[in-house]
Amino acid sequence: MRLFFALWPPESVAETLAAEAHALAHRFGGKATRRETIHLTLAFLGEVDDARLPQVIEAARGVRARPFELRIDRLGYWRHNRLIWAGCSAEAPPLRELADALRERLRAAGTPGDEAQGFVPHLTLVRNARVAAPAELPALAPLVWRCEGFVLVRSRRTEAGSGYLAVAEFPRGDG
Question: What is the CATH number of the domain that holds 56?
Answer without folding.
Answer: 3.90.1140.10
